C-alpha cells in the first residue's frame, strides 16, 4: 500500500513537472508569436520543445509565418511595380498631351475656322487640359508614394512665402473674379518645412479654391505656424472626414477636371514634412488648415 502511494506520488510529481514545463514552453511560443506581429521583427519561432506534438505545432506555425512573409514581400513588390508603372505611363503621357494642347491652341488662332469647328476645338482643348491635370496628379502621386520625393526641411519665412505666392498668382485670382481676404500676424512667422513642397501644397489648395469658390476666399497665417484657406461651399456635398482620401469627391468639393487627388496630395506633402492637415465645414464655409512644425 505504501509503495503504491509512493509510486503514485512520483508519477503525479513527474506529470505536474511535465505540465509546468510544457506551459512554460507554450508561454515562450506565445511571446515569440507576439514578436512576429511587429513589422521590423523578421525571425521564426526558435523554440525547442520536448513534446513531439508541441514541436509539430511550432513547425507548422513557422511554416505559416514564412508563407505570410513571402506573400507580404510579393505584395510589396507588386505594389511598387504598379506605382512605377503608373509613374512611367503618366510621365510618357505628359509630352503628347502638351503637343495636343499646343496644336489645338494653334487651330483656334485660325480666323477662317467655322463657328462649329471652333466650338469643337474649344471643347477638345478644355478636355485636354483636364486630362493633362489628371496625368500630372497621377505622376506626382506616384512619386510621392514611392518615397522618391526628396524632402529638405529648413527654416522657412512663411510670411514672405505666402506674400510671394499671392503676388505670383494675382493674375489667376483676379481672372477668376476672386477677392482674397488675407490675414497675417504682426510678427514674421518661421516654420520648419521644405519650401518647394509648401509651394506645391499652396498650388493645390489654390486650384481647389479657383474651381469651387465664388467671389472671395480667406487666407490666414497664425503665429503658431498654421496656414488656413477658407472658401464658400455647399456644405451638404462635403464630408470633412473623407476630404483628404484618395479620389474622394464631394459634388462641389472634389469635382472638376482633376482626378480628385489634389487634397490627398496636400496631405501626403504635409506628412512628409512632419506637419498635419485638417478640414472643417462650418455653415457654408470650408476651411483647410495646415499645421507646420516651428
From TrEMBL:
Domain Histidine kinase: 88-294
Enzyme class: transferase
Pfam families: HATPase_c, HisKA
EC number: 2.7.13.3
One GO MF term: phosphorelay sensor kinase activity
Main location: membrane
Keyword Transport: no
Mode of membrane association: Multi-pass membrane protein
Keywords: ATP-binding, Cell membrane, Kinase, Membrane, Nucleotide-binding, Phosphoprotein, Transferase, Transmembrane, Transmembrane helix, Two-component regulatory system
Location in the cell: Cell membrane
UniProt cross-references to CDD domains, sorted A to Z: HisKA
Gene Ontology CC terms, in alphabetical order: plasma membrane
Reaction equation(s) it catalyzes: ATP + protein L-histidine = ADP + protein N-phospho-L-histidine
Name this protein carries in UniProt: histidine kinase
Protein's organism: Ruminococcus albus 8
Organism lineage string: Bacteria, Bacillati, Bacillota, Clostridia, Eubacteriales
Amino acid at each position: 500500500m505504501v509503495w503504491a502511494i509512493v509510486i503514485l506520488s512520483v508519477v503525479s510529481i513527474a506529470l505536474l513537472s511535465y505540465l509546468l514545463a510544457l506551459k512554460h514552453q507554450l508561454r515562450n511560443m506565445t511571446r515569440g508569436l507576439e514578436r512576429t506581429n511587429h513589422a521590423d521583427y523578421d525571425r521564426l519561432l526558435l523554440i525547442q520543445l520536448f513534446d513531439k506534438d508541441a514541436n509539430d505545432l511550432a513547425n507548422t506555425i513557422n511554416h505559416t509565418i514564412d508563407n505570410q512573409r513571402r506573400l507580404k514581400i510579393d505584395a510589396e513588390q507588386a505594389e511598387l511595380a504598379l506605382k512605377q508603372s503608373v509613374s512611367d505611363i503618366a510621365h510618357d503621357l505628359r509630352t503628347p498631351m502638351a503637343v495636343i494642347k499646343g496644336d489645338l491652341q494653334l487651330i483656334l488662332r485660325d480666323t477662317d475656322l467655322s463657328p462649329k469647328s471652333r466650338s469643337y476645338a474649344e471643347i477638345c482643348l478644355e478636355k485636354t487640359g483636364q486630362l493633362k491635370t489628371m496625368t500630372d496628379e497621377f505622376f506626382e502621386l506616384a512619386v510621392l508614394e514611392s518615397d522618391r520625393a526628396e524632402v529638405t526641411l529648413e527654416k522657412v519665412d512663411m510670411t514672405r512665402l505666402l506674400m510671394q505666392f499671392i503676388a505670383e498668382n494675382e493674375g489667376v485670382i483676379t481672372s477668376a473674379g476672386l477677392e482674397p481676404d488675407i490675414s497675417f500676424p504682426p510678427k514674421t512667422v518661421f516654420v520648419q518645412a521644405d519650401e518647394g513642397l509648401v509651394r506645391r501644397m499652396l498650388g493645390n489648395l489654390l486650384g481647389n479654391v479657383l474651381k469651387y469658390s465664388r467671389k472671395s476666399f480667406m487666407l490666414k497665417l497664425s503665429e503658431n505656424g498654421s496656414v488656413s484657406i477658407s472658401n464658400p461651399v455647399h456644405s451638404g456635398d462635403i464630408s470633412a472626414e473623407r476630404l483628404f482620401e484618395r479620389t474622394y469627391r464631394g459634388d462641389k468639393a472634389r469635382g472638376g477636371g482633376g482626378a480628385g487627388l489634389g487634397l490627398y496630395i496636400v496631405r501626403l506633402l504635409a506628412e512628409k514634412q512632419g506637419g498635419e492637415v485638417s478640414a472643417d465645414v462650418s455653415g457654408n464655409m470650408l476651411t483647410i488648415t495646415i499645421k507646420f512644425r516651428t
